């Protein structure tokens, strides 16, 4: 089955059994209501046990789910009158990043996000959501345009990382990412970032310097993939599960560390199961965050962003131990 996750197998098997019994009841005179009720109660308990006690590696798997909603999926649910803008005015158009102008509850906004594909053909076209420099320069062009016309900026983060190929390096990948970090820090309009899947390395951070950074419950945000970290630390990529637990890359961990502001709850089983319900949950957090930021003037917005990032990774001394506050 496409996208089936190991920890979800018991749930899917039980759901399938309940579905079979219901279909059998419809086509015969046998009443299995009591058996179905017992199985549904068992299913509810099983789902609670699994989804309330998810391990970091389980969340990594959900963040990578092939059917997980993408930036364009959420744009269709959350915004109206979206007009996509193409090209960086230097080299070309990178389809791994999408962006444009839209309305959010009647307010003109600029929306930018990483975009991966839903199948092999689209993934190849969008380079599996790994942007080239022109993608980041397109994003920056849209951000500066938003600043010029006083439009809030909303960024969706969902990438394994920036494309590490030769062509990207030749066109200035590192410089493009660094320029985005520098320019985003000083934008005089509200900037809200939401991690909707994988947030990998500088490729994610290039869209992640915001006044607020929120994460979907089963997303990840990290300087490197668990497989990459395992290869460096233990010379064995198969220890990715151990690395995921050590790295503190999940939303609950990052909330404790002060890296993100809010965790957006996901529908039971993952955002891919009900995008409309998931979008409603995102809408509540997004609307509240934007409402707070719209009350600040340009100077206050820059200061707010500066203070937020200054607090991340603060150190405090406790006897002889120095660690992250």
UniProtKB/TrEMBL annotation:
This protein's GO CC annotations: acetyl-CoA carboxylase complex
Single GO MF descriptor: acetyl-CoA carboxylase activity
Positions of the CoA carboxyltransferase C-terminal domain: 35-292
Root EC class: transferase
Subcellular location: Cytoplasm
Keywords, alphabetical: ATP-binding, Cytoplasm, Fatty acid biosynthesis, Fatty acid metabolism, Lipid biosynthesis, Lipid metabolism, Nucleotide-binding, Transferase
Gene Ontology terms: biological process: fatty acid biosynthetic process; malonyl-CoA biosynthetic process
Pathway(s) served: Lipid metabolism; malonyl-CoA biosynthesis; malonyl-CoA from acetyl-CoA: step 1/1
Entries under InterPro entries matching the protein: Acetyl_CoA_COase_a_su (IPR001095), ClpP/crotonase-like_dom_sf (IPR029045), COA_CT_C (IPR011763)
Reactions the enzyme catalyzes: N(6)-carboxybiotinyl-L-lysyl-[protein] + acetyl-CoA = N(6)-biotinyl-L-lysyl-[protein] + malonyl-CoA
Entry superkingdom: Bacteria
EC id: 2.1.3.15
Pfam families: ACCA
Transmembrane regions: none
Name used for this protein in its record: Acetyl-coenzyme A carboxylase carboxyl transferase subunit alpha
Lineage: Bacteria, Bacillati, Bacillota, Bacilli, Bacillales
């Amino acid at each position: 089955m496409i996208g089936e996750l190991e920890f979800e197998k018991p749930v899917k098997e039980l759901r399938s059994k309940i579905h079979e019994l219901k279909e059998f009841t419809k086509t015969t005179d046998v009443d299995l209501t009591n058996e179905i009720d017992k199985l549904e109660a068992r299913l509810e308990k099983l789902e609670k046990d699994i989804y309330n006690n998810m391990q970091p590696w389980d969340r990594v798997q959900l963040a990578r789910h092939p059917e997980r909603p993408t930036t364009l999926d959420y744009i269709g649910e959350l915004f109206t009158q979206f007009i996509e803008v193409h090209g960086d005015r230097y080299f070309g158009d990178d389809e791994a990043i999408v962006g444009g102008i839209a309305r959010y509850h009647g307010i003109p906004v600029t929306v930018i996000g990483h975009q991966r594909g839903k199948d092999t053909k689209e993934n190849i076209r969008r380079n599996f959501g790994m942007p080239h420099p022109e993608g980041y320069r397109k994003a920056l062009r849209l951000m500066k345009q938003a600043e010029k016309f006083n439009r809030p900026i909303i960024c969706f983060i969902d990438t394994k990382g920036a494309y590490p190929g030769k062509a990207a390096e030749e066109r200035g990948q590192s410089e493009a990412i660094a320029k985005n970090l520098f320019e985003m820090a000083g934008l005089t309009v509200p900037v809200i970032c939401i991690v909707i899947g994988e947030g990998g390395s500088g490729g994610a951070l290039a869209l992640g310097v915001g006044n607020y950074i929120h994460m979907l419950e089963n997303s990840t945000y990290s300087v490197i993939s668990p497989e990459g970290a395992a290869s460096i630390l233990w010379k064995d990529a198969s220890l990715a599960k151990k690395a995921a637990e050590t790295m503190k890359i999940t939303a609950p961990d990052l909330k404790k560390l002060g890296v993100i502001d809010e965790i957006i709850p996901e529908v039971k089983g993952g955002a891919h199961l009900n995008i409309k319900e998931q979008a409603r949950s995102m809408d509540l957090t997004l609307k509240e965050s934007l409402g707070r930021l719209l009350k600040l003037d340009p100077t206050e917005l820059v200061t707010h962003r500066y203070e937020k990032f200054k607090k991340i990774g603060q150190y405090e001394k406790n006897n002889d131990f120095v660690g992250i506050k």
